[in-house]
Amino acid sequence: MAKLWKISKFVRIYLGFKPDGYSRIGECKRCGKCCAIGIMCPFLFYKGDLAFCRIYNTRPKSCREFPYEPQDIVIGCGYSFYRKRK
Ligand code: SF4
Q1: Which residue has its alpha carbon closest to ligand 1 atom 6?
Q2: Span 10-19, mean pLDDT?
Q3: pLDDT (tens digit, 9 = 90+) per residue, 33-46?
């Protein structure tokens, strides 16, 4: 089951699928955990505890906007979500 979850997350990242209904708050703490979901991103590297991206200025939209929804939050992530009012 965990493997299926990782695969579906990877597909969503790849497709840039962004569900409606949530607003994201907070900020990235540069832990790099989301860049290692499923597979380790080849552009990810660390200096001490901080994660860096080799293509940060030209990174895909899907990377800029991840996490998309509460299910994407990994432990320690600086983002959280609240539901938008309808
Ligand atoms: S898991 Fe959250 S805090 Fe860590 S790098 Fe990804 S977005 Fe930033």
Answers
A1: 34
A2: 62
A3: 999 988 899 999 99
Query: Alpha helix (H) ranges present in 1-71?
Result: 2-15, 61-65
Question: What are the boundaries of each domain within the chain?
Answer: 2-83
Look at strands 50-53 and 44-47 and give their pairing: antiparallel
Question: Could you tell me the pTM of the whole model?
Answer: 0.74
Ligand 1: which atom is nearest the Cα of residue 33?
A: 1
What region does 72 belong to: left with phi over 0, alpha with psi -120 to 50, or beta? Answer: alpha
Distance (Å, whole) CA 5 – CA 71? 10
Report d(CA 48, CA 3) in Å as an integer.
Answer: 29
The amino acid sitting at 63 is C
Distance 71 CA to ligand 1 centre (A): 13
